[in-house]
Amino acid sequence: MSKMTVEAVEEGCRTPRHGGCRIPATLQCPPAPKKKPVNGRQRSPPMNGYFQPPDLEVIFAMAPRS
């Protein structure tokens, strides 16, 4: 038998160094977020007035403490 020499070639995983594989550097920052437009106008009160039930005070009246 003859002795053979084996050269260990370490070709494991490597980071690609090709220019097409690189992440491009950003040249400008993205613009600042814009405010949402305020699309609420103040509503006018109803023409006939607000509904006022006669027994509304009774519902919210506090019972006297004993």
UniProtKB/TrEMBL annotation:
One of its GO terms (biological process) is regulation of DNA endoreduplication. Residues 1-53 are annotated as: Disordered. GO terms for molecular function: protein kinase inhibitor activity. One of its GO terms (cellular component) is nucleus. InterPro entries: SMR (IPR040389). Keywords: Cell cycle, Protein kinase inhibitor. The keyword Cell cycle applies. The keyword Cell cycle applies. It comes from the Eukaryota. This is Uncharacterized protein. It comes from Dipteronia sinensis.
